[in-house]
Design goal:
By secondary structure, the chain is of the alpha/beta class. It has 3 domains: 108 residues, Leucine Dehydrogenase, chain A, domain 1 (Rossmann fold), CATH 3.40.50; 137 residues, NAD(P)-binding Rossmann-like Domain (Rossmann fold), CATH 3.40.50.720; 157 residues, Rossmann fold (3-Layer(aba) Sandwich). It is 39% helix and 17% strand. The protein contains 16 helices and 16 strands.
Length: 427
């Protein structure tokens, strides 16, 4: 009898589990979206070889298990099922992935006060890990109860570690954020188990507050922040899958595979976003990057023209800059919600903080620099106004805030694209 392997859940359109397990050697890995009433019948099937389990079934599947490993029993949730000799065994590999994620980011829980947002299966894993690692105090926050999101800052302003296990900020609702880190001034470590997008709003804020963050091509972040270590959930996702694969097939998988697969996934799924002054070469370099990478190219100015049904100068002439910026925001947000693209933004896209966040959530952002005297102005309404120097003065700090890296575009498009692509592949 051929065995089936895959991911069990209710809504799995966002999942990256299939490519991870296929990279680990499980070519037949599938996604099984089931309603609650279908769960028991499916789990009784004799051809079930191994399953990963995600929201909302991590606790529901426990009653169908013939045996639980100590971690699953202690945590109170199962994320991996294996059938051996007719019996269904339940495991929790999330804790392996969670601890790996923390170690990789050099986040320690020992002796610290940890706040865990959420009360579901991922929260149970985080709580067990915090106990195992010797956290001084563990505070669980939910929408209701003694400690909730509204009173968290006043009751636990001394929290040192913040762990988000809620879906707030997860694809496709990317703009949410569970708490404001500015209200928790003692937090020095932030872990978000969400992996899509790569940088949730919570992590973006951690970046902004991290005084010691250096960006290639840029100086030290402005003073006034604090040193914060932070991590998203991709290392956890990949490492728990590695451990599950070992349980499925009874063979060890080197830890090095976690890093290789995580890096590959990031390169495949992350957007590469180009920002810079009008005429800095974003479209030309973007097309060359698409050729190098095989990723589709999206020119946001072209998308705006397509949506509006008229050229950008006509939009400015008939409606003014305000309606244009709103249209630009809508097009940019939609484009950045998709994965694995080369995106060339308009020169003024960085003027709105919401746009800068959208660019950074799902991609690595590059600031293309070009000398002012080399910037063309034809067909560019704002550039033609003769205020390029003032425009650059206003926008340059915003490009710096949005970008992960600055790249000079004083050379050929091929050379500039090559520099960017090498940097992107090394992340």
């Amino acid at each position: 009898m051929e065995k089936i392997y895959g991911l069990l859940g209710r809504t799995l359109g966002h999942s990256w589990s299939a490519p991870i397990h296929k990279a680990l050697g499980c070519e037949g890995y599938r996604l099984f979206e089931l309603e609650p009433g279908e769960l028991e019948g499916f789990l009784r099937r004799e051809d079930v070889g191994g399953l990963n389990v995600t929201i909302p079934y991590k606790r529901d599947v426990m009653k169908y298990c013939d045996a639980l490993d100590p971690a699953a029993e202690a945590i109170g949730s199962v994320n991996t099922l294996v059938r051996r000799e007719g019996k269904l065994y339940g495991y929790n590999t999330d804790i392996d992935g969670f601890l790996y994620m923390l170690r990789r980011a050099e986040i320690s829980l020992r002796g610290k006060k940890a706040v865990i947002l959420g009360s579901g299966g991922a929260s149970l894993t985080a709580q067990a890990a915090a106990r195992q690692e010797g956290a001084r105090e563990i505070v669980v926050v939910s929408r209701t109860g003694e400690v909730h999101y509204e009173n968290l800052p006043e009751r636990h302003a001394d929290a040192e570690v913040l762990v988000n296990t809620t879906p707030v900020g997860m694809w496709p609702r990317l703009e949410g954020q569970p708490v404001d880190l500015r209200l928790l001034p003692a937090v020095t470590d932030v872990a978000d188990v969400i992996y899509n997008p790569g940088r949730t709003n919570l992590l973006l804020q951690a970046e902004e507050l991290d005084h010691w963050r250096r960006m290639p091509g840029y100086a030290l972040s402005p003073p006034g922040g604090r040193s914060i270590r932070y991590t998203g959930g991709l290392p956890m996702l990949v490492h728990q899958a590695k451990r599950a694969e070992e349980l499925f097939f009874g063979r060890p998988v080197p830890d090095e595979e976690t890093e290789k697969i995580a890096a590959r996934l990031w390169r495949d799924q992350a957007n590469l976003v180009l920002a810079g002054m009008p005429g800095s070469g974003k479209t030309t370099v973007g097309r060359e990057l698409a050729r190098l990478s095989g990723k589709p190219f999206v020119d946001l100015d072209e998308e705006i023209v397509r949506k509006a049904g008229k050229p950008i100068p006509e939009i400015f002439a008939s409606q003014g800059e305000g309606p244009f910026r709103q249209l630009e925001h809508e097009v940019l947000t939609e484009a950045c919600s998709r994965s694995g693209q080369i995106i060339a933004t308009g020169g003024g896209a960085v003027l709105w903080s919401e746009n800068r966040a959208a660019m950074r959530r799902t991609g690595r952002v590059y600031h293309l620099r070009r000398r002012l005297e080399d910037l063309p102005t034809e067909g560019r309404p704002l550039s033609q106004a003769g205020k390029l120097a003032e425009m650059e003065r206003v926008r340059d700090p915003l490009y710096t805030a949005a970008a992960d890296c600055a790249v000079s575009n004083e050379f050929s498009p091929e050379e500039t694209a090559g520099t960017i692509w090498r940097d992107f592949c090394e992340r």
